[in-house]
Amino acid sequence: MQNRTRTSSGSPFEDQFGFCRAIRIPGHGADRIIVAGTGPIEDDGETTEGGAAEQAERCCALIVKAIENLGGTAADVVRTRMLLTDIDQQAEVGEVHSHFFGAARPAATMMGVAALCRPEWLVEIEAEAVVEH
Fold this sequence. Notes:
single chain; alpha+beta; CATH 3.30.1330.40; six-stranded mixed beta sheet; 3 helices; 6 strands; 27% helix
């Protein structure tokens, strides 16, 4: 577990549930950055206002910030997973995803789920990036 670097987003859940926003794991030739499932949390701990698109934008912004904190960029993203409580919002969330990660064209999964951690959350997103040395 040595040489792993972690970053926090300041989410109250990180301390409460014992996790970090993202972790960079060294590898031969490239490092992996794994970003935890990221909900639409504002700096004050409140949920981002608006619909699925606005919440997805906040999730993606937090993901990119975490990756940048660990020395990567949005262009390094190779995998995303998008969880939606209303799958009918897939076009709106997909458009936001494309804005942030379209140039990288990561392998992506979008799925409908019954619920997320907070009842007002409409979307949660996680990502993985590979940063070459």
